[in-house]
Design goal:
Mac-2 Binding Protein; 4 domains; seven-stranded mixed sheet
Length: 697
């Protein structure tokens, strides 16, 4: 805690200071600094593993006894208070469900509620000291900012457990080290200890141990290995054993959570009669091709995917969404832990979970919340096999959406340099027509034009560049609202001059007998939510926005949405478009404030957690169907169709509905989120010859 002496606390201290010459300099008390009154007699520490020095399970010593804090009602505000107690400036996150392992002893605090401004945790509300109905499986942890409070000096220091810990794990191929393709799926198990890398004795080694190691390395499962070959090879090599007696259950997210023993420095005989432990892992579909196991993976039947991740910036991370009754929904974070998160990660072809995220850390979803209080053992093949509660609307909100970060295999892609520089000196273009889904590990896995490079000229105008970001927006159209608000209007031509100026009518309108007659319009409302982790902003700045006098507004994007009427086989028979002449926060979730408003030449965009509503009665919020014949059709809406603004997920940018038009009325039904790339985008790509596809299936 920060020292606070009497002369800082009281006006009498000022008088004493004036009378005491020793106060003229910096005070250097000979006794330990006085603790804050609220925390008198308390000590705090971070414990558990695996962790970094500024994170861990929070433990409090009271009346000489160390204990923990239950994660019920725990918030980031409580984490701020505790991090300051520990000498850090603030918290960057918190954990639940004993992420750093269960503690022992008393559970000192439960239902802890802080505003975040308290000077001491004793000023926060709770059930009272020692009054708890929790178990140590619900111990809370904090992640503090790695920045210490100025002048923080007292006995309340972070206490690091002195026992050895396994920091990292790797597989070392027995032969051909450095020449094997990545990721490495089989080899000798090596663990990183404080004094370097060591091998593990295979005495008592089990398939459960292999499963934990494979999970840490980003692989969903393990397989049997030819131990006879490796034992024969081991007789010709020298070994450095640092670990033995490993006994895992198989559900642990980290080897450190297993029972294990370290060799002491003075142990002269290590692993007598044994050999180095060997593990062989099975890669998930995304990594199978690069490891030479693609054919084996494809031979296995693939069922319908019922779990997916959304909103993440990297593979293997995101908000958990599950499919129920043909509808995708989220998972409530109550009881969400590493075991449940690991089941999700392995189900999707990744390793065990690195983090079980709560509090909508990967953005808030929309629509249904299907599951709550998921309790997995860690052995289940699917999240749906875990015990859980079906949820009602009152049980949970999207601010409690669960997420995961999974362990991924090391592929070495980050060491392959993709240069981005001023292309003034560029002399050759080597790729064109590149089209990726976003899940590829490198550009050469994306579909492209192959050896036939369509872009023959070089220079700034013809070369691609990127700006990278850890977070991005994610737009999603409220499909049910489209279905509920669709109707036909016959609008007189004399009311459509502005719409004609902005190309919101079909081509046949140009030859109409203006201002007489009318156009038949399919109108509907569109409500576009930003479910990502960054605001959606127009690519162009305000200085380049185009003023449209007729409607009296600015266009910040040329095209924001495409509206199309398609035949069942995909042929377009009518189209409309929506320029983003006003991107703003129409409404937001309860805990989110509006940031963007178009009035008075304001900034345009959609804040995370907000939505922009284009009502059905706004100009150009329609498709001109004057020339469409009666029949069955598909209504398609594509947001950000030219991919001008970065999003973490483009697969939810298209919405499709079934339509029946009898020449007088229209029925719109079965509206649902469709594929990422519109038919128009596919056709535009296919215009180029020499298309090849190197995409991983």
């Amino acid at each position: 805690m920060r020292p606070v002496s009497v002369w800082q606390r009281s006006p009498w201290g000022l008088l004493l200071c004036l009378l005491c010459s020793s106060c003229l300099g910096s005070p250097t008390p000979s006794t330990p600094p006085e603790k804050r009154a609220g925390s008198q007699g308390l000590r705090f520490r971070l414990a558990g593993f695996p962790r970094k020095p500024f994170e861990g399970r929070v433990e409090i010593q009271r009346a000489g006894e160390w204990g923990t804090i239950c994660d019920d009602d725990f918030t980031l505000q409580a984490a701020h208070v505790l991090c300051r107690e520990l000498g850090f400036t603030e918290a960057t996150g918190w954990t639940h469900s004993a992420k750093y392992g269960p503690g022992t002893g008393r559970i000192w605090l439960d239902n802890l509620s802080c505003s975040g401004t308290e000077q001491s945790v004793t000023e926060c509300a709770s059930r009272g000291w020692g009054n708890s109905d929790c178990t140590h499986d619900e111990d809370a942890g904090v992640i503090c900012k790695d920045q210490r409070l100025p002048g923080f000096s007292d006995s309340n220091v972070i206490e690091v457990e002195q026992q050895l810990q396994v920091e990292e794990v790797r597989l070392r191929p027995a032969v051909g080290w450095g020449r094997r393709p990545l990721p490495v799926t089989e080899g000798l198990v090596e663990v990183k200890l404080p004094d370097g890398w060591s091998q593990v004795c295979d005495k008592g080694w089990s398939a459960h141990n292999s499963r934990v190691v494979c999970g840490m390395l980003g692989f969903p499962s393990e397989k049997r290995v030819n131990t006879a070959f490796y034992r024969l090879l081991a007789q010709r090599q020298q070994h450095s054993f640092g670990l033995h007696g490993v006994a895992c259950v198989g559900t642990e997210a980290h080897l450190s959570l297993c029972s294990l023993e370290f060799y002491r420095a003075n142990d002269t005989t290590r692993c007598p009669g044994g050999a180095p432990a060997v593990v062989s892992c099975v890669p998930g579909p995304l990594y199978a091709a690069s490891s030479g196991q693609k054919k084996q993976q494809q031979s296995k039947p693939q069922g319908e995917t019922r779990v997916r991740l959304k909103g993440g910036a990297h593979p293997g991370e995101g908000r958990v969404e599950v499919l129920k009754a043909s509808t995708w929904g989220t998972v409530c974070d109550r009881k969400w832990d590493l075991q449940a998160a690991s089941v999700v990660c392995r189900e999707l072809g990744f390793g065990s979970a690195r983090e079980a995220l709560s509090g909508a850390r990967m953005g808030q979803g929309m629509g249904a919340i299907h599951l709550s209080e998921v309790r997995c053992s860690g052995q289940e093949p699917s999240l749906w096999k875990c015990p859980h509660k079906n949820i009602t609307a009152e049980d949970c909100s999207h601010s409690q959406d669960a997420g995961v970060r999974c362990n991924l295999p090391y592929t070495g892609v980050e060491t392959k340099e993709t240069w981005y520089w001023d292309s003034g000196n560029t002399t050759e273009v080597v790729m064109s027509g590149v089209r990726c889904t976003g899940s590829e590990l490198s550009l050469d896995q994306c579909a492209h034009h192959g050896t036939h490079v369509a872009c023959k000229r070089t220079g700034t105008r013809f070369t691609a560049g990127v700006i990278c970001s850890e977070t991005a927006s994610d737009l999603l159209l409220h499909s049910a609202l489209v279905q509920e608000t669709a109707y036909i209007e016959d609008r007189p031509l004399h009311m459509l001059y502005c719409a004609a100026e902005e190309n919101c009518l079909a081509r046949s309108a140009r030859s109409a007998n203006w201002p007489y007659g009318h156009r038949r319009l399919l109108r509907f409302s569109s409500q576009i939510h930003n479910l990502g982790r960054a605001d959606f902003r127009p690519k162009a700045g305000r200085h380049s926005w185009v003023w449209h006098e007729c409607h009296g507004h600015y266009h910040s994007m040329d095209i924001f949405t495409h509206y199309d009427i398609l035949t069942p086989n995909g042929t377009k028979v009518a189209e409309g478009h929506k320029a983003s002449f006003c991107l703003e926060d129409t409404e937001c979730q309860e805990d989110v404030s509006k940031r963007y408003e178009c009035a008075n030449f304001g900034e345009q965009g959609i804040t995370v957690g907000c939505w922009d509503l284009y009502r059905h009665d706004i100009d150009c919020q329609w498709i001109d169907i004057t020339d469409v014949k009666p029949g069955n059709y598909i209504l398609q809406v594509v947001i950000n169709p030219n991919f001008e603004v970065a999003e973490s997920d483009f697969t939810n940018n298209a919405m499709k509905c079934n339509c029946k038009y009898d020449g007088h009325r229209i029925w719109v039904h079965n509206c649902h989120i469709g594929d990422a790339f519109s038919e128009e985008a596919n056709r535009r790509f296919e215009r180029y010859p020499g298309q090849t596809s190197n995409q991983i299936v």
